[in-house]
Amino acid sequence: xxxxxxxxxxxxxxxxxxxxxxxxxxxxxxxxxxxxxxxxxxxxxxxxxxxxxxxxxxxxxxxxxxxxxxxxxxxxxxxxxxxxxxxxxxxxxxxxxxxxxxxxxxxxxxxxxxxxxxxxxxxxxxxxxxxxxxxxxxxxxxxxxxxxxxxxxxxxxxxxxxxxxxxxxxxxxxxxxxxxxxxxxxxxxxxxxxxxxxxxxxxxxxxxxxxxxxxxxxxxxxxxxxxxxxxxxxxxxxxxxxxxxxxxxxxxxxxxxxxxxxxxxxxxxxxxxxxxxxxxxxxxxxxxxxxxxxxxxxxxxxxxxxx
Length: 307
Fold this sequence. Notes:
Blueprint: H1 3-18, H2 21-28, H3 34-56, H4 59-63, H5 67-94, H6 97-104, H7 107-119, H8 125-142, H9 155-175, H10 182-203, H11 212-224, H12 228-239, H13 243-247, H14 252-265, H15 271-288, H16 296-302
Helix pairs in contact: 1-12, 2-6, 2-11, 2-14, 3-5, 3-10, 3-11, 5-9, 5-10, 6-9, 6-14, 6-15, 7-9, 8-15
């Protein structure tokens, strides 16, 4: 098997796993509060990433991390996983998964908007058209197919779902200042964030739960949303001869996710959810047209998130 075939294998594996996490969020939240899910999933993710670092022989690199980078990782850890996933899980708690998942998928559009003031980048006319199409898709989903009424099914949930894209985009923009290996950096983000998450959990929901199914779900989320899937995706991007060949696999994830939400969670998929998702995907695809290939490191950051 050549490198490009292996890249496809790693990439498809990551996409298939990511397509399951919206369902895992919704099932887990039947037994845990959002902050509890974040706490237990973060512990699972930290352990998985530690195992990956040991296997890759990066443990010494972790121990030699400069103090300046440790401070940056601690600060970024407040954004992700602490605030980002707390907001995202709360959105999933309030909204049907078929609505929360496509809304969160607009993170790439949010990133392009924030890159203008923060990274001094410029928006093309094509970018503006892509943004307009994607945000019209948001209105279609949030209003259940009546975008011109501006009557949202759950305005607070929609606000949280869109807010999560803002937090995620800020995390990756500020992460461009980091000089350390991505998995090492992500491990440190979680390491510094977990005490804060634990304190919030203790002060609010507590650590008790009504079913062991909640812990199983949290372990799944920690393993496949926050942990090993990120490593698979990085591997795919580093092996591929063209980042676009792997990055385009991402567009399969939200579509596959809708099928799982229907058959496992039991939600009846509204036509507006499917139509809005297609508009959001169209906006994301349109945004990529005419762009020069990004350096591998930037592509890893730009295409990381799919849930």
